[in-house]
Amino acid sequence: MKILGIDIGGTFTDVYLTDDDVNEQTVHKVSTTPDDPSEGALRGVHEVCEMTDTPPGELDYVFHGTTIATNAVLKHEGVEVGMITTAGYRDIIHIGRHKRPQNYSIQQDVPWQQHPLTKRRHRMTVPERIDADGTVRTPLDEDAVAEAARALDDAGVDSIAVAFLFSYLNDEHEARAKEIIEDVSPDVYVTTSSEVYPQFREFERFTTTAMNAAIGPTVVEYIETFERELRSLGVTADLHVMQSNGGIATEEMVTERAVTLLLSGPAAGILGGKRRTDVDTPDSEATNAITLDMGGTSADIGIVADDEIVKANVRETQVGGYPVMIPMIDIETIGAGGGSIAYLDDTGAFRVGPKSAGAMPGPIAYDRGGTDPTVTDAHVALGRIRPEFFLGGEMDLLVDAPRETIRERLADPLGMDEMEAAAGVLRIVNNGMANAIRSKTVQKGRDPENFTLVAFGGAGPMHAADVARELDVSRTLIPASPGVLSAVGLSTTDLQFDQIHTTFETLSDLDRERLQSDYDALVADVEDRLHRDGVADERLDLELSADCRYEGQGYELTVPVSDGRRVRPIERIDAAFDAAHESEFGHGFDGNAVELVNERVTAYGRLPTADLVTIPEATSMVEEHVLFKDDVYFDVDGEIEAYVTPFVDRTDLRAGHSLSGPAIIAEKDSTIIVPPDFDVSVLQHGDIELTR
């Protein structure tokens, strides 16, 4: 079985090919092509197939992680969107909840007002009304829908979002409106809130629908083009795309719900980090991991607690400041990457990021026209990244130019030498990542000391030890092929489809059999979806859950409600919510009435998972594999000192090898920096463990 994973990042595109027939795994990196990300990805596919003598037609699965949806939102590059909504509710998407993103700031942008997903002149209303119990109070004015669609078409909109009140209870009007719009304007992309995510809370539902409309045409065009180009290379396997919930989507699923691709790439990285930690954790212990995916433009942080990847609460999920009401892995993203630019602001303060040099022009060391000092340039200046190792020697690397620029731009104005300034760049970016990790651990009642830090991405292994020291993490794991772990993670997940039904019922008033009937209807819907995607019953798993809250609360927590397909007794659901509330907030209210708000079903279609390759046992001493030694600068207790440091090629290391820092372990897709106060052990699957 041959599985291909493709992950497009800000600076590099990663390609991973595993062939279980010969127990081989191949990694490859190519520069991302920002103007057309598919161009670099297709080149990577072609090159990795040539490198391994693999005919493209023999690939069994192709999995893809992409930032195309996220970038469209963050850069405000969505298409022109029109909206048709219930009469009298034209401005919900603008007004929001009268709650500013920053409560006490008098100078701030409100994203949905500063950069509206749909302009007011493109928001139309039509007479219709469905009551809070799902019954039709005012029939849909079909002529008004057709007139609005024609007006929006004449105005040049590319996409139309349909969002009516209470459509999550009854989608009759939205479905009919979509039919009318597609008849009047067949070339316009149409999306309805009941298709995207039928859940209560009008502002968030309307915004999510508008976002789907804004990025849908771009995503659909990209996926269709990418799949067509894969076919031209000779690839016959279907294309599957990573979703933000950690599951894989088919092309049909992506066409309907483009917003599920937001944070697609980072989600794959967390899956890969969990997989590597699972195999290196004793069977008697639960996997607890902090994943740190640091690439060229950003660092993405995820949490695995008690064997489970932590998911974001749907009421709190947002991208670019816009509320997005879809299931997502809980990911914290900050502007800290190898390309993050170091500079002195107008007040003379030393800052790093979030602005990045990106793939083009990139860091100064890349010799592509970059003129601003970056995190990568700081590593080069400190002697940690060497030209002969960078991308296996396939890419030239400047050494003197980064040092000169750091001296001129940072060191001289601050009255320090260039090595102190370079180390300062790293100290700032490391503290930023450590603080972001604390927001997901310490502030949530999790002690980082009880977690393994899993660092990957092209830049993650260079910062892992320093971040671990800052957090008092005792164990750090650098996976095999860390620079392409997101691409590896793509091969570890399954097809996933989520469905939801909003209802407001107090648990004490619920009948278990009626609740079972509700879930049976949702199960039938998700099963039908995966059956259409070719998933047989024996490969289908279900997860039933519910959003609950204490009566009178304005927020919910999600709790499991079943063992298999059968819902649990109501008392067990009540007790599960009490326990979840106490775990999340430090207290619960046993005996208070609990309200069920949303019924959820997640269906998984199991896909093959690539086996991890073990590496040979060590039969020699590490010292025999030292390529050379040279001065490398390290920050030890605030003092910048040069240490004579051995350089080792990671491909020469075997299971059981160990060494003490300082050391530089280089490989094609990343560099592992081992400070003087850390030790290294090589594990059976090629993962490297750092301990203090």
UniProtKB/TrEMBL annotation:
One of its GO terms (biological process) is glutathione metabolic process. Pfam families: Hydant_A_N (PF05378), Hydantoinase_A (PF01968). One of its GO terms (molecular function) is 5-oxoprolinase (ATP-hydrolyzing) activity. Residues 205-497 form the Hydantoinase A/oxoprolinase domain. It comes from the Archaea. InterPro entries: ATPase_NBD, Hydant_A_N, Hydantoinase_A, Oxoprolinase-like. The lineage of its organism: Archaea, Methanobacteriati, Methanobacteriota, Stenosarchaea group, Halobacteria. GO terms for cellular component: cytosol. SUPFAM superfamilies: Actin-like ATPase domain (SSF53067). PANTHER family: 5-OXOPROLINASE RELATED, HYPOTHETICAL 5-OXOPROLINASE (EUROFUNG)-RELATED. Residues 4-183 form the Hydantoinase/oxoprolinase N-terminal domain. This is Methylhydantoinase.
